[in-house]
Design a protein that fits this description.
13 helices, two-stranded antiparallel sheet
Length: 427
């Protein structure tokens, strides 16, 4: 991971002695602020300390908003259009899709593959943290792959206004759209009449309601076979147990170094399969994305947020994207932030041989083709198994890749098991 320039500077005065990074969790001690107010905290965030007590009435209103297809321009697209409840709130993509969802207007596509919204309530607010064995503090938390939203309430602005998604464009246009529905009086009854004539007040109300829905227990079911294994030691198969061991082994898959779990803890919140951090792994360019028809277009991830928040040396974060959770990963239609892979097995295999056989992944070229040349020094070439060199033996055999995929399928919640495609094995 790139060194944080701020780590060598005198600590800026903290704007507050403590900050709350997760709802209902104890405040975190702030040791300094980075840039324009991003806190660096003294201890790692513990997701099990979060306490969610969403107001049922407000959660129900948020659910109505989530499924309402009248809030796009033109009408016809809801939040659920890109976060399908039948696919663990990730995207269901039609045949021929470029790997991302189409917006409310034909020919307009999102720039990224929509993540599952299940368990999103555990994503903490943006912060820096320096572990004991880390050379410098690193960023964690925030919504979207680039961390540009600090909270779920703030996050909803993105899809509602984005011209490639729900296409309201401006808060004023969104206000007119909402006022033409029966949601407007329901929001006014809850948040006051101002929401009907103040665009920003309406956006805040929509965000507050959707945030509470995202924090409801409906969105964090913990009903997978892996959860049964954690709680009751319900046996997994021999292959799945081999996959779990390989997932944890720092010399083999080393997946656990970013996709954190605790298989000795009975509380499933300790196994969210993400540390909420960021990494630059340089997945191949998805040439089917409309935006990528322009060879000068690159999704540089975290560095734009770093510039906005005035973090020191923001370009060091170009290529970094937030580590997603892996719960329900086996039901996804596409994989990675740009939807470049069509199978879970390919996504696992990429980590295994990205460095040992780069030409396989980068269209015959031995370069990281979706990261500008000026930022390629940011790419993670130090963490196993990505620290190997071309021609070296891969860390995992083909059978061991199959074992890890088998284990990842155990992370599927019960309601979505039928949405998993049949398992594919190496040939």
């Amino acid at each position: 991971m790139a060194a944080l320039a701020a780590a060598s500077l005198p600590a800026a005065p903290a704007t507050a002695a403590e900050t709350t990074l997760l709802p209902g969790a104890p405040p975190a001690v702030v040791v300094r602020t980075i840039g324009a107010g991003t806190p660096q905290v003294a201890a790692k965030i513990d997701a099990t300390s979060a306490v969610f007590r969403p107001d049922p009435a407000l959660a129900a209103l948020g659910r109505r908003i989530f499924f309402d297809a009248r809030l796009s321009m033109p009408r016809g697209q809801s939040c659920a259009s890109c976060h399908d409840p039948a696919r663990a709130f990730s995207a269901t993509l039609p045949a021929g899709s470029p790997g991302v969802t189409q917006g409310s207007r034909p020919g307009h596509f999102s720039l990224r593959n929509p993540p599952s919204l299940l368990y999103v309530r555990y994503v903490p607010r943006r912060h820096f943290y320096q572990d004991d064995d880390a050379a410098a503090a690193a960023p964690f938390g925030g919504l979207f792959a680039d961390g540009r939203a600090d909270t779920l309430a703030e996050q909803v602005r993105g899809p509602l206004l984005d011209p490639n998604e729900m296409n309201n464009g401006t808060p004023a246009r969104l206000l007119r759209n909402v006022n033409a529905t029966d949601l407007a009086p329901a929001l006014a009854a809850r948040f006051g009449g101002t929401v009907r004539n103040d665009p920003e007040a309406m956006l805040r109300a929509l965000g507050a309601a959707l945030e509470v829905y995202m924090q409801s227990d409906e969105m964090a079911p913990f009903t997978s076979r892996f959860d049964a294994y954690l709680r009751h030691r319900t046996p997994l198969s021999a292959q799945e147990m081999r996959g779990l061991a390989l997932f944890k082994n720092p010399d083999k898959g080393n997946c656990m170094s970013c996709h954190a779990l605790s298989d000795t803890a009975r509380r499933p919140e300790r196994s969210l399969f993400t540390d909420f951090g960021y990494d630059a792994i340089a997945v191949p360019r998805n040439r089917a994305l409309p935006a990528n028809r322009d060879p000068r277009h690159f999704d540089n991830g975290l560095c734009q947020t770093a510039r906005t928040l005035r973090w020191p040396e923001p370009d060091q974060w170009c290529g970094y994207l937030r580590t997603p959770g892996l719960r329900n990963v086996a039901v996804r239609h596409r994989f990675m932030h740009n939807g470049v892979f069509t199978t879970l097995r390919d996504a696992v295999a990429f980590y295994n041989t990205r460095s040992t056989d780069p030409r396989k992944w980068y269209g015959g070229a031995a370069t990281f083709d979706d990261v500008p040349a000026s930022y390629r020094d940011n790419i993670n070439v130090n963490s196993p198994p990505m620290n190997r060199r071309p021609g070296m033996p891969a860390a995992l055999t083909e059978g061991e890749i199959d074992d890890i995929v088998a284990f990842l399928r155990t992370l599927t919640d019960a309601a979505y098991e039928n949405a998993m495609p049949p398992a594919t094995a190496s040939r």
